[in-house]
Amino acid sequence: MSIGETYDPLGSHLLDPYPLYDRARDEEPVFWSPAVGAWVVTRYEDLLKVLRDPETYSSVNPFTRALPIGEEAVAELGKGYPHHPDLIQSDGETHARLRAPIAEVLKADRVAALEPYIRERAEELVEGFAGDGAVEFMERYAVPLPCSTIGRLCGYDDERAKVAYSSLLAFTTLQSTHLTPEEEVEAARSGVRLQRLLGELVRERHANPGTDAISTVVRLSSDGGKPLEYADEAAIVANLVQLMIAGHITTVPLLGMAMVLLLTHREQWERLCADPALIPGAAEEILRYGTPASGLYRDTTRAATLGGVGLPEGARVVLRFNAANRDPARFERAAAFDVERKPGRHLAFGWGVHYCVGAGLARRQLEITLETLTARLPGLRLTAPVTFRPVHDLRHPEAVHLAW
């Protein structure tokens, strides 16, 4: 059987896809996968070629369509706002226009202003379980820190933060994992629930603007002197959904993966505890080796050749960032996890015009987490095998059980 015929991202390759990616890079670096309905791209240079050529490889449909949803779920989605492009699902001038307000609220000065809060919240979360001797890290830390951080950035309270995350978590399973019809409907309802929450916030900020991120996005996306039209509200909500997804759905698994990698490579954890100056470099190595956002899709706008494969117009490709980030043609000792590695240009945040606007905020949350935990709980150890959520295109630990 070909590599593509054996590829089972939600099954046999969920826990450890890397041996298959190693083989693919050597034998068939761009292979067709019936499981994902796309050509799977595994080499660093091939991913770079795609990311550098957004005119040939369109980002209008960047998310999986591997698991179509039923009519009832589609009907539920129809109760929300109509579809609008956003900074992730767009190309060219539309992308640049939609990216600008989100990039504005995630600039370095905004991240720096958030840092004292992130540090305080990290300390508070660790203090909440430090005396227990054990913790399930995802529930008690990896989820609440990004939720609180985005809540502070956007100017909403903890209750809204919980609703936003729970809605996101359910919504992002649509077409990403196997669901029953009832689960599909609930996931669709969760997406609409998130839209309504954001719509409420958009209307509030348009009427009474503040200095928070949502106020800024509303101001930069509309004419504040005029009533907010429904179409404008829908477009702003679509863009804010992607801010929510980026701020939660990738940062949460990143924090979990950090602990999994460091504590399964115990000597690396001990190096960080002994020398905190290694933490910024360690964060980059965690991003390279444990890339949480493992795939985004592109569609060819014209015939192209990629990795020796001729692709017609309309071909669908998925960029396997986690495969590229372990490509030995790019990284020396690519299969080794080494916190003292000299940082290289990994693709955990993408490249080019679609480079992740939230990269700086994600990095700081990871670095602060490592600083806090190495100082407070140097005796951390894993106490149970780690499993991963069975979802396409995201490496997300389900539970990380720790003790000290």
Can you give a write-up of this model?
The chain is α+β, with helices and mostly antiparallel strands. The protein has a single domain (3-403), classed as Cytochrome P450 (Cytochrome p450), CATH 1.10.630. The chain has 17 helices and ten strands. The strands form three sheets. Strands 1-2-8-5-3 form a five-stranded mixed beta sheet. It has a three-stranded antiparallel beta sheet with strand order 4-10-9. Strand 1 and strand 2 form a beta hairpin. The protein is globular, with a radius of gyration of 21 Å. The mean pLDDT is 96.
The H-and-E topology, N to C, reads as HHEEHEHHHEHHHHHHHHHEEEEHHEE
What does the radius of gyration come to? 21 Å
Quote the average pLDDT: 96
Q: Which percent band covers the strand fraction? A: 5-15%
Note the overall shape. Answer: globular
Q: Regarding CATH, which class? A: Mainly Alpha
Helicity, in percent? 40-55%
Number of domains: 1
CATH topology: Cytochrome p450
Give the N-to-C terminal Cα separation: 46 Å
Please name the fourth-level CATH homologous superfamily.
Answer: Cytochrome P450
Assembly level: single chain
What profile does the largest beta sheet have? 5 strands, mixed
Structural class per helix/strand content?
A: alpha+beta
Number of strand elements: 10
Write out the strand line-up for the largest beta sheet, numbering strands in chain order.
1-2-8-5-3
Stretches where pLDDT is under 50 for at least 5 consecutive residues are: none
CATH architecture, please? Orthogonal Bundle
